[in-house]
């Protein structure tokens, strides 16, 4: 298929490579051009404006946040003004429910196709074509994009006609991940302060009742205290926490844990952890336990 790809960060670069490897023809755009140039050697055509990537079968956006997606979608030279009659805009970033609804309405009004397809999986899964994709929008349009999802993901979940439902599922999933990170951070601090090796502690848990990928992945990062380089930046994790709270407020659903974790994110960012992996939330639990920088020796 002929595909435009906009946003070649940690996730987008791996996803675009998977599409190229599967034989799709790519036009790529990235705000900082150097990241796009890296893909030119692998067969992608680098374009100067988002609108230049919008005349094929589909254009995928994989950008940081609402502001970035709004910025490349609306206005002259951007996606909506340039989208071909048969080109689908596939929004794969983690964005708000409200923006997804607005995108759906704006594309509908312009007679253009829009679906949401946010993903679960970190950059290593994106590079390996092993993402989990949650797709929502008109069934025929989702089906047209399936070859692209097959190249980027190990499984696609279809969620019905309303695109923003996929965004809400994604935000809910990320809220669950923050609860896992927070509870892992607290229990690792507890056991470490008592002198128990965190790797041993996590080995017991993930070999028994907690044998889920999420505990293995984040348990490993937290036990190793390897929060850099970030696979998913703290500031982006904070963005998703705020978007989950906004969606919950709109539906009048209290999320007391998310509210508490909101303040933990703020503390972590205020203390200079904003560019580290979001699992550095565990560092706060360690510091609150007097474990200094998370090291095994308690502060006197
Ligand atoms: P990232 O590495 O920070 O990349 C962000 C991308 O957005 C870059 O291409 C960046 O361009 C672009 N961008 C940021 N602000 C922009 C703006 N105002 N205008 C135009 N482009 C802009 O982020 P990522 O980790 O790839 O995440 C991308 C999306 O996937 C996010 O919505 C994130 O929540 C979601 N996600 C991430 C993960 C993960 O584990 N990392 C997993 C699932 C979903 P520059 O290169 O010029 O900065």
TrEMBL record:
GO terms of molecular function: NAD binding; NADP binding; oxidoreductase activity
KW Plastid (keyword) present: no
Domain 3-hydroxyisobutyrate dehydrogenase-like NAD-binding: 165-284
Every 6-phosphogluconate dehydrogenase NADP-binding domain range: 2-160
Active site positions: 170
Lineage top rank: taxon: Bacteria
Protein name as it appears in the record: 3-hydroxyisobutyrate dehydrogenase
Organism for this UniProt entry: Bradyrhizobium erythrophlei
